[in-house]
TrEMBL record:
GO biological process: steroid biosynthetic process
Family: Belongs to the 3-beta-HSD family.
Gene3D superfamilies linked to this entry: NAD(P)-binding Rossmann-like Domain
SUPFAM superfamilies referenced in this protein's UniProt entry, alphabetically: NAD(P)-binding Rossmann-fold domains
Keywords: Oxidoreductase
Keyword Transmembrane helix: no
Source organism (scientific name): Sandaracinus amylolyticus
3-beta hydroxysteroid dehydrogenase/isomerase domain segment(s): 6-257
Keyword Oxidoreductase: yes
GO molecular function terms noted in the UniProt entry: oxidoreductase activity, acting on the CH-OH group of donors, NAD or NADP as acceptor
Pfam family, one: 3Beta_HSD
Protein name: NAD(P)H steroid dehydrogenase-like protein
Length: 336
């Protein structure tokens, strides 16, 4: 096997896909994890991966995991729309600082960061946006704010201490094994509570999980000192903008559920999100509100991107169409 590569978030949705792809290439993987994942344990037993127990906020733990590697896929992050800012900062900013420190300490030559297009979302429609779109001036939740800080740090580190960096912004990753979008959609569909602001007619360009993984490998293969992609961020998606309603109904249909989606005025949804946020804070309720202002904005606005830069600089093309992704999702949901 070739020199090891470190993958943070190796047990997660996108991270586990990257691990499988690297192992298929014959690459030995280092993974830093707090929890246990049977798939990673199995790879370790097979001698294809080594697990380092630790937290990304622990600089020494990250350093141990990174030692001897030839590059890092920094996928781990605290994602969500609710919770204390300090928790997001610790995971997304401090964790990234520690990854960068490890790269400098061990003279690691390249780093691929998994970011998010939410770093540029200011609440309005994003239609055909390219990478010249500026970062948002303010954020409604801690996740995109802390990811923007992390992305800026990683890109600023490019060329320093011999490190080449690139950031990818896959949008709304979904597919078999998805722990976020798919289960939420199906849970609400089963309860008859699937409601979309404006009826879900604004167009979005989501990312099937295999496409997100493929984009990371494309970036890895192209990243080098002086490469066109070095020090830059790239939007990643399917290249198939469609009404959000169509994607949601495709997921619902894959589960064999009735295609019923109700509509709500976007202004009412935003007001409801604000009210629920205030209620949860005032009552100090645990868990996440069923709707927040950020989610209301995300559901009510268009999100699709110009992928020309990723195609040109990374050689990226989505390897799986949305239609094929839905077929694979259906097969996984109905598997015995």
């Amino acid at each position: 096997m070739s020199e090891p590569v470190l993958v943070t978030g190796a047990g997660g949705f996108v991270g586990s896909g990257i691990v499988r792809a690297l192992v298929a290439r014959g690459v030995f993987v280092h993974a830093i994890q707090r929890g246990r994942y049977e798939a990673l344990d199995a790879l370790e037993r097979e001698g294809k991966l080594r697990i380092f127990r630790g937290d990304l906020a622990d600089r020494d733990a990250v350093s141990r995991a990174a030692e001897g590697t030839r590059g890092v896929f920094h996928v781990a992050a605290k994602a969500g729309v609710w919770g204390p800012y300090a928790d997001y900062y610790r995971s997304n900013v401090v964790g990234t600082e520690n990854v960068l420190h490890a790269c400098r300490e061990h003279a690691i030559p390249k780093l691929v960061l998994t970011s998010t297009p939410s770093v540029v979302h200011a609440g309005d429609d994003v239609e055909g946006a390219d990478e010249r779109t500026p970062y948002a001036e303010r954020y409604e939740t801690a996740y995109p704010e802390t990811k923007a800080i992390a992305e800026k740090m990683v890109l600023a580190e490019n060329t320093l201490a011999g490190l080449s960096t690139v950031a990818l912004r896959p949008h709304l990753v979904w597919g078999p094994g998805d722990p976020h979008l798919v289960p939420r959609v199906l849970e609400r569909a089963r309860r008859g509570r699937l409601v979309l602001p404006g009826g879900g007619h604004k167009r979005v360009d989501a990312t099937y999980v295999d496409s997100a993984v493929h984009a990371h490998l494309c970036a890895w293969d192209r990243l080098a000192p002086g490469a066109a992609c070095a020090g830059r961020a790239y939007f990643v998606a399917q290249g198939e903008p469609m009404p959000l309603r169509d994607l949601i109904l495709g997921i619902v249909g894959a589960a064999g559920l009735p295609p019923v989606v109700r509509s709500i005025d976007p202004r009412v949804a935003y007001a409801a999100g604000a009210l629920l946020e205030g209620t949860y804070r005032a009552l100090r309720r645990s868990g996440e509100p069923p709707l927040t202002r950020f989610v209301a904005h995300q559901l009510a606005t268009a999100h699709w991107f110009d992928l020309s830069a990723a195609k040109r600089d990374l050689g990226y093309e989505a390897p799986v169409s949305t239609a094929e992704g839905l077929r694979r999702l259906r097969a996984s949901l109905h598997a015995p």
